[in-house]
Design a protein that fits this description.
This protein is mainly beta. The protein has one domain: q5lls5 like domains (HSP40/DNAj peptide-binding domain, Sandwich), CATH 2.60.260.40. It is built from no helices and 5 strands. A hairpin with a 6-residue loop joins strand 4 and strand 5. Bound molecules: zinc ion (ZN).
């Protein structure tokens, strides 16, 4: 298993979408809300979404 990817997102984003990047490693499209935090991790693929400062 490879290291989880880290995806930078705009600091004003409220939600992020993840589909695992598509292809064989992809997963169903899911949305995550930051819900006041500055990072969220995808439950499917482990990608981390971090708000840029
Ligand atoms: Zn994912």
């Amino acid at each position: 298993m490879k290291e989880p990817e880290v995806i930078k997102v705009d600091s004003d984003a409220d939600q992020v979408m993840c589909d695992g990047g598509g292809g064989p490693l992809g997963h169903p499209q899911v949305w995550y809300s930051f819900d006041g935090k500055c990072e969220v991790s995808c439950h499917y693929c482990g990608r981390k979404f971090i708000k840029s400062a």
